[in-house]
Every structure is written in C-alpha cells, then in structure tokens.
Amino acid sequence: MISVGIDVSKGKSTVCILKPYGELLQRPFEIMHTVEDLTALAKTIKHFNEETRVVLEATGYYHLPVLEFMKENDIFVSVVNPLVMKKYINVSLRKAKTDKIDAAKIAKFGLDHWFDLTDYRPDEKIYEELKILGRQYLQFMGMYIKGKITLTCILDRTMPGIKDLLKSYSDDFSHNKIGEFAFRFCHYDLITNKGEKHFVGEYVKWANKKGYHANEKKAHQIYALAQTGIPTLPSSTPSTKMLVQEAVKVLLQTEKSLHIILARMNELAKSLKEYKVVRAMPGVGDKLAPRLIAEIGDIRRFRNGSSLIAYAGLDAPPYESGNFTATKRKISKRGSSILRKTGYEIMKCLKTVKPAYDNAVYRYILKKESEGKPKKVAKIAGLNKFLRIYYTRVKETIAG
C-alpha cells in the first residue's frame, strides 16, 4: 500500500512517496515533464512490490503529460478534484505552503482515501477531441460577443440607428449583413454625399452581390436615416474608416472560425451512436447537440443519472442538524458550469419551440411555473429531469 503524491506545476512536478503511518519511502523530489524524468518515475513506481497508486490534482492542462505517460505505462492514477484537495490540505491550523509540503499532503490524501480512489479512465479519442473543440468554441464565442459590442459602439458614432434598421447579426454565422454593410459604406456622410438615387442603385447592386434581398424601400429608409442621423466621429479622417473596417474584419473572421469549429464538432458527433437520440430530443438543435455531447462525454463514466446531475452541479445535497431538516435547498453549482449553461440554453429553446404537451420535460417546466416557481428555477428543474432522461436514453443506445 504505497501512495505517490504529485504536486503538478507548469512543466515540472514535485513527487512524494509514502506508506501507511507516515513512513517516508522517498523524500519529496522534483521532476521535469520530460520523457527521461517521467520514465525514471514510472520505473521507480513499478519497482515496488506492493500495490501503488498515484494521486494528483486536476490542474487544467498542466497535469496531462504526467497523466498520459503514467496511463501508457499501466499505472493506477487517481485525478482528484482541486476543491476536494484544497479542503483536505487546509485542515491544519498552520497553513504553510510549498511544493514539497503539498506533494506530501497529496500522498497522505491517497492513503487516507485509499478505498475511495478511482483509476482514471481516459475517454475515447473522439470524446476528448469534442471536448477540446467545445471549449475552444466557447472561447471564440466570447471573442465574437466582444466583437459585436465593439462594432456596435463604433457604429453608434458613425451610423447611429443603422443596427435596428438592418436587424443586426445572423445566428448561423454564415451572413452578417450589418457588418458587411458597414465595411462597404462606413459612415452616413459617405451615403448622403452620393445622393439618394445613386446610393439606392449602389445598395441594390451590393445586396445582389452579397446574396441579400435587394430591397429598394430599405435603401430609401437608410438614406433618410443618414440625413437625420448625427454621427459623432468625422468621416474626413482616415482613422474612422479604418476603425469600422477593422472591427468588421475581426467579427467576420471570428464568425468564420465559429462556423468551422461547429462544423467539425457536428462531423465528429454524428459518428457517435448517441447523436441521433440526442438530436431528436426537443430543444436540442444542430448547435447544441455536439456541444452537449462534448461536455458530458462518454455516458458510461457515470454510475447513474444522479452522478450526471452532480457532475452538472444541479444536485441539492440534504442538510440536517439536530431537529432541523432543510426543505428548501439551492443547487450546489459544484460541477461543470459549461454543462449547466448549455443545458439552460436547451431549456430556453424548449420553451420557444413549445413541443407537444406529452413531452415530459416541457410538461414538468410548465408544472413548476404553475406552482409559482420563478421561470429560471422552473427551467433548472426541467434541466434536472432532462439530464436524467438523457442518461437513460443514451445509456440504452450505447449498450444496445
């Protein structure tokens, strides 16, 4: 019974090897994340004649080289939630912290929780790739939202009111009418200087070329708005045109990246058995299906539906003390915030599409709302039920 505690850092780790009752087999030592050092560590672990388990924290991407190398060498590795480890380490009154101390405490955690440790089960490559793409999709979505805000702020100073008239941005990332319009015309002064007839003809030609509806009435409305609007950035300086066009370029490029990432996610998700089942669930569209599968991963890694609920942070652990038993408990939120966000988007879509009343999740949301629950609370309750149904259907599909 030997516990190997590894405190992972960027590019290096500190290792401590312990036996029960605090017997130190090897004082904490440092290794680099290189083939040479990790090979030496793997040989040391395999050299012991007793059952040996490696324990480390999940640290973003830093722990992955150590984890993958250990698994390639068939070594038991338990990846512990950082919050669990933090609470364990902070039990002592004196909170000294060094990498060597942390490595020793992680090793001691392995001994104290020996029978609760679970060997890390790497997901299939396709789930891992989906998860990486899903996380990058969210990063690019954040950039996309910032890009929209930036362009909107500039247009409020060069073409105030144009956003409402052109109905802004497309949801499928394939067209962005207001962005392409702003890139072409930039400023109200450039529109009014052309004259109404000339601008209308140019607008119709531009719309036909870009694949938009060539509406002359819309062109006259834009010209009228340009005459009455008051821009606060001058059209005479080259900086104004440059700022508008660069903001549009960033937005269009981000949209293109989102479209490419989502297409690849759909391509991967469609190769999985559960895709058709997930896609058929009301509220789950072409965008949300691959994102949902990416965040949940292989359903077989969850023991039951409650485990999936806990992973999403939707569980409400019981609270009891003496004669008091809490009846109104909030969700823990100690789980995947991305899964909760994706699931909440699905619930919003479900309320929008209004499926048949026999849909269990939709009916459950309506029931909670009729009981006086706030709409957000009702949607979270519906998401809880949705994930339980997801677990059952997907598990049956994969097992079959």
Care to describe what's here?
Helices cover 58% and strands 10% of the residues. The mean pLDDT is 87. The protein starts with a strand and ends with a helix. By secondary structure, the chain is an alpha/beta fold. It has three domains: 2-116, Nucleotidyltransferase, domain 5 (2-Layer Sandwich), CATH 3.30.420.40; 129-267; 275-320 and 329-399, no CATH class. The longest helix has 34 residues, at 125-158. It has helices at 35-47, 64-72, 82-89, 99-112, 125-158, 162-166, 177-185, 188-192, 196-210, 216-228, 238-269, 275-279, 288-296, 305-311, 337-353, 360-370, 375-399, and strands at 2-8, 12-19, 23-32, 52-57, 77-80, 320-321, 324-325. Strand 4 (52-57), helix 2 (64-72) and strand 5 (77-80) form a beta-alpha-beta unit.
